[in-house]
Fold this protein.
Amino acid sequence: QVQLVESGGGLVQAGGSLTLSCAASGDTFSSYTMGWFRQAPGQERHFVAAISWSGHNTNYAESVKGRFTIHRDDKNSAVSLQMKNLKPEDTAVYYCAAREYGNSFFTATTDYEYWGQGARVTVSS
């Protein structure tokens, strides 16, 4: 079992950058595929990015490709989401998620077992 805590959310202007962090505790972090999802007001939670437990594979939603980068730090049991060139449509609550093993092509919310509490990101135009 793993516990996840996100940090780094906030308010940023369009075109700006922000990095979200997710600290994990509990089980062996290196055996978990990690994902980021986001949920805008009134919408369902959608996949943003994932990195496999090995760190060898990453996957991104089309809407964030080339702007967002997911990175994992197994030494510190953490995963980050670097976001550049932010757009107002990126405004959402961002959630960190984990599943044991698997791969980065798991993009459904049901593919992940553990979730953080969320970090709000607001991009102003």
The mean pLDDT is 96. Residues 15 and 85 are 4 Å apart (CA to CA). The two ends are 40 Å apart (CA to CA).
